[in-house]
Amino acid sequence: MVLFNLLKRKKRFAIGIDIGHSGLKVVTFHGEGQRGTVEKLHLRDFSPGAMDAGRVEDEGELVEALRELVREGLIPKGKMVASVPGGKVEVKRIRVPAMGPKEVDRYVAMEAEQAFTLPFLSLTIDYAVMKRTEEYSDLLVVGVPREQVTLARELFHKAGVDLHVLDVKPLALYHLFSFLGGDEFEGLSVVLDVGRSVTTMVLVMNGEVLCAREVYLGGDMITEMIQAKEGIVYQEAEKLKREEFSHKPYEMEILDKFVVSLGHELRLVLDSCRLWLEPGEAEVKRLFYTGGGASLKNFGRAFEEKFDVEARNMYYLNAKDVLGGRVEELDRYSVAVGLSVRGAVA
After folding, report:
1. What distance in Å separates the CA atoms of residue 211 and residue 122, rounded to the nearest whole number?
2. How far is Cα 121 from Cα 115, in angstroms, rounded to an integer?
3. Residue 340 host element (H or E)
4. Running DSSP on this structure, what letter comes out for residue 64?
5. How far is 164 from 14, CA to CA, in rounded Å?
6. What is the pLDDT of residue 58?
7. SS3 of residue 325 by DSSP
8. Most CB atoms within 10 A, among 11, 180, 285, 328?
9. Strands (DSSP E) along the chain, which ranges?
10. What residue ranges of the chain have pLDDT lower than 70?
């Protein structure tokens, strides 16, 4: 199994497997050149408590969910691209002097110790060369908690699933954004995948990924604020959010608080990669969002009003060509689609 295999081309036919908070999401994708279509979407819900704040609490249920997919023939052997479960993944670009491969490994280790917020010794590090000149190389570096990588390997091994690539959600999201035409935009774009408990933030400058981070902030925050407003239990608040939230008088008040929290985290990510931005480039030109936590009717409007930036759902790009009449399914399956795209054409 290859770890991350950053930005390299894979096979035309691929399966993307996303281990999310609420369930296992599987996408079958068939690519032709730089195009392709989603052939199958599958969701296997987890029981309450199987995942908690991005952490795997019930390994047995996840293993059994994977085994079920094998038994049902939904994930044949090979061509698998799966996400590392959990959160706290960080992606950054760094510049190193021109040097040999072994020297680059040591230099990346030194730079990563300073660049990432998590303790360096707790991370698994991988990198890809984005640009090379006679004087320097620009690298894209990924840091993932080592325990999450180990757990992912164990889960798929126990389930008898032969992984092709173990990937990270920020890069899967970036590849989806690029595949849908987002890499054509000039200036600074932000891509958000708002999950139930973890939000993935990716900054893209002139079509190239600049930096990314996963933060423990998601749609659960909205549910909890509804719960407090209504004085109801969590399950009732979650149902209200899905079915009646847009008709409530406090909708924009809650959405405003939520996007302000996201904005604070986004500023931290932006600050961490300002060295790559010229004066005036740090202004966000546009924001594209996806994920179940961002599927609320007025999510984009709240972002636009608070931060004076164009905010649109990612399916407004070229998602119809990929998903056909199921375009709005992108919110739920965005990471899984990105993983499959990466395996097939990226």
Report:
1. 20
2. 13
3. helix 330-344
4. H
5. 9
6. 87
7. helix
8. 180
9. 2-3, 13-19, 23-32, 35-45, 51-52, 55-56, 80-83, 90-97, 123-132, 136-145, 165-167, 188-194, 199-205, 208-215, 284-290, 310-313
10. 1-12, 32-34, 53-54, 75-79, 345-346
| CA-closest candidate to residue 210, choices 259, 114, 282 | 282
Question: Per DSSP, what are the bridge partners of residue 42?
Answer: 26
Q: How far apart are the first and last CA of the chain?
A: 18
- Asked if residues 146 and 8 have their Cβ atoms less than 8 Å apart, the reply is no
Q: Are 250 and 240 in contact (CB under 8 A)?
A: no
Domain boundaries, the chain: 2-344
* Beta carbons of 311 and 289 less than 8 angstroms apart: yes
pLDDT digits (tens, 9 = 90+) for 263-312: 999 998 888 888 888 777 778 899 999 998 888 999 999 999 999 999 99
**Token couple for 254:** 């809650």
Task: State residue 260's pLDDT score.
Answer: 95
Query: From the centroid of its chain, how far is CA 169?
Result: 3
Tokens of 298: 């007025």
Among 119, 297, 292, residue whose Cα is nearest residue 199: 292
Residue 98 backbone phi and psi in degrees, to 5: -60, 125
Cβ atoms of residues 137 and 98 within 8 Å: yes
pTM: 0.88
DSSP β-bridge partners for residue 31: 36
Taking the C-alpha atoms of residue 170 and residue 6, their distance in angstroms, rounded to an integer, is 12
Listed residue (286, 337, 339) closest to 308, CA to CA: 286
Decide if 143 contacts 89 (C-beta within 8 A): yes
Which amino acid is present at 225? M
Spatial CA neighbour of 208 closest among 265, 308, 281? 281
CA proximity to 306, closest of 230, 253, 237, 250:
253
φ/ψ of residue 191, rounded to 5? -115, 125
Q: What's the rounded Cα separation, in Å, for the pair 95 and 107?
A: 10
